Amino acid sequence: MPDVSSIPENERVYGLKGVLEHSFERTRHDASGALADYIPELAKADPDRFGIAMASVSGEVVGVGDVDLPFTIQSISKALAYCLALEALGRDKVLAHVGVEPSGDAFNAIVFDALSNRPFNPMVNAGAITVSGLLSEAFGAEAFEVVLDRFSAAAGRRLVMDETVFRSEAQTGHRNRGIAHLLKCAGALGADVDDAVDLYFRQCSILVTATDLAVMGATLANIGENPLTGSAAFAVEAVRNTLSVMFTCGMYDFAGNWAFDVGVPAKSGVGGGILGVVNRQLGIGTYSPRLDAKGNSVRGISAFRDLAEEMGLHVFDPTNRGSSLLSAYRR
Ligand SMILES: NC(=O)CC[C@H](N)C(=O)O
């Protein structure tokens, strides 16, 4: 660990919380984008809410703005469910059903890899529904409890599902049901269609806060062990594989831009959350429900860009501090 006196004064003075406060101030004024409304219940969110939280692998948690406000995890669940499936079923079994190539298409695109008849990757709906199918086959009637337990272990507190959002999506999710039927027809989905989409809609309806996303991110950054509780949430090998797919596919058809500008593995959800992972250092969670045309949170993207620039988080950035990142921000 470097001597604190070698760290520039301005960074020492502000600490992680100060960095967040500045970033929040620089990004909070953008009111562009719109709430997701294809799941009717999501259109009821307060569009002005905004929070940024960070959790370190050494257990420090800081936040600014609406970091304790619950919202549904939505597609961020895809990354965690994939991690669980890799661990429970093994990588080969999962790879036989879902690929790891970016699709370049929207999250809800009705498109499979023509060569293999598999969905492109587990971060778009087709792949995520297939993963939910694998989990529902593996765990039967207990599948949602298993998922909720693991998500809770990653967040370090008992999470619950929002029944109203679940029902809203279950009643209107015809496109996802259609995707599931096509997956079944293509042979990618082994599970019963209704079981697979039921688990998928339930996992998407789990309530989290920006702070939870930060702690979940820190759990992934800490290769599966929650740094606050000390308990293992995910297997090491599964975390490695999940972060790889988050890096290349986590932001749907914005994944290339994200890797270019921000340069950390991340996953977004149409509830307005983004979870980012600074490997071996930090988890970052943002919440702002106005989305861009690709379904990613507008201010969430701005906050991540700002933090990546400010802190040198991009994996290939010459200012990336690697393992001395946290000591640079120690007060
Ligand atoms: N991108 C998302 O967050 C989509 C999740 C949502 N439950 C859906 O399948 O449509």
TrEMBL record:
GO MF annotations for this entry? glutaminase activity
Q: What residue ranges are annotated as transmembrane?
A: none
- Subunit architecture: Homotetramer.
Per UniProt, the keywords (alphabetical) are: Acetylation, Hydrolase
Listed PANTHER family: GLUTAMINASE
| Species of the source | Xanthobacter autotrophicus (strain ATCC BAA-1158 / Py2)
Q: Which NCBIfam families match?
A: Gln_ase
Primary enzyme class:
hydrolase
Q: Biological process GO annotation list?
A: glutamate biosynthetic process; L-glutamine catabolic process
Pfam families xrefs: Glutaminase (PF04960)
State the reactions this protein catalyses.
L-glutamine + H2O = L-glutamate + NH4(+)
Q: What's the protein called, per UniProt?
A: Glutaminase
**Family (UniProt):** Belongs to the glutaminase family.
Chain positions recorded as substrate binding sites = S75, N125, E169, N176, Y200, Y252, V270
Q: Which InterPro entries match?
A: Beta-lactam/transpept-like, Glutaminase
EC number(s) per entry: 3.5.1.2
